[in-house]
Amino acid sequence: MGFKCILYALFKVMYIYSEKRYYMIIGSHVSFNKKDQLLGSVKEALGYGADTFMFYTGAPQNTVRVPINADLTKEAFIFMKENGINPNNVIVHAPYIVNLANESNFDFSIRFLREEIKRVELLGFDKIVLHPGSHVGVGVDKAISNIVYCLNEVLVDTPVKILLETMAGKGTEVGSNFLEIKRIIDGVSNKDNIGVCLDTCHISDAGYDLNDFSRVLTDFDNIIGLDRLLCIHVNDSKNEMGAHKDRHENIGFGHIGFDNLMSVVYSPKLKDVPMILETPYFESCPPYKFEIEMIKSKKFNANLYDDIVSYYK
Ligand code: FE
Ligand code: FE
Ligand code: ZN
């Protein structure tokens, strides 16, 4: 009897401890410049008090890429280790000129994506976020088979996972609902190499109601499966639910709102999923240090813009 009681008490303590202790992994988009490369990205992330980060290996809107400098990469990894950034939580983002949905630019897109995946490997990471693409007239069904074709061309012999990002449904974007994402995943042969990145601004713009995030998550789980959810983009939206616009807003200043975003960020089911802010700069200054503070302290900061200006100017 006594032993059982002790055991029960022990479990109870462990349970409470694990409930309280859970933390999120939060960071933001950072730059990757020619000179400092990954080392610069890591330093920028640490300057924001972040646990992780996301970057493009060059400008998102072009294909100009510098060769990866091994020394800088090595130094960056030492720096990450010293400061508790786990490389498994670091995300690369593919440039948005890659469009796998329409065959007009297939050769370029496949070739460039292959090179990009090599760079991700060279940098020592294993996750790259990709926009499924825009069908530009060929229709969703054709677009999905195009995307599947390309992914199967690209996802060969690599440890790198492609994370398909949920889109706002602007123009002819594919992947603005979980079913389309699921149809793409179904076509990919190499299932170990495919995951999903959920963008809060995009899903709200696509018509998902973030007033009830647990329902959205259940939906996601039923259609795609939570085990595929490997990254969250945490953004507020300048537009109301269903607007299909894709314009990000600072945390708590948009139509999703602070409380709804907090229920995403503090969702216990997502405690191991890296969360990345892609919110807009204010007067050319990054908001991330202050937004991360807001999120970690669970307190909305109505003076965000003043704080940014007085810190950086
Ligand atoms: Fe994106
Ligand atoms: Fe995003
Ligand atoms: Zn977006």
Describe this structure in words.
The structure is a single chain. The chain has 313 residues and is an alpha/beta fold. It has a single domain (24-312), classed as TIM Barrel, CATH 3.20.20.150. It has eleven helices and ten strands. The chain has an eight-stranded parallel β-barrel, surrounded by four helices. Strands 8-9 form a two-stranded antiparallel ribbon. Helix 4 crosses helix 5 (140-154). Zinc ion binds next to helix 7.
Q: How is this structure best summarized?
A:
The protein is of the alpha/beta class. It is built from eleven helices and ten strands.
Helix-strand layout with pairing:
Blueprint: H1 2-21, E1 25-29, H2 37-47, E2 52-55, H3 70-82, E3 91-93, H4 106-122, E4 127-130, H5 140-154, E5 161-165, H6 178-187, E6 194-199, H7 200-206, H8 213-223, E7 229-234, E8 236-237, E9 248-249, H9 258-265, E10 274-277, H10 288-297, H11 304-312
Parallel strand pairs: 1-2, 1-10, 2-3, 3-4, 4-5, 5-6, 6-7, 7-10
Antiparallel strand pairs: 8-9
Residues 93, 129, 131, 165 line the site of one fe (iii) ion (FE).
How many separate domains make up the residues? Answer: 1
Helix content: 40-55%
Q: Give me the CATH superfamily.
A: Divalent-metal-dependent TIM barrel enzymes
- The overall pLDDT, averaged over residues, is 95
Helices and strands, in N-to-C order?
Answer: HEHEHEHEHEHEHHEEEHEHH
Q: Helix count, per DSSP?
A: 11
Task: Kindly report the spatial arrangement of strands forming the biggest sheet.
Answer: 1-2-3-4-5-6-7-10
Biggest beta sheet summary: 8 strands, parallel, barrel
Low-pLDDT runs of 5+ residues are: none
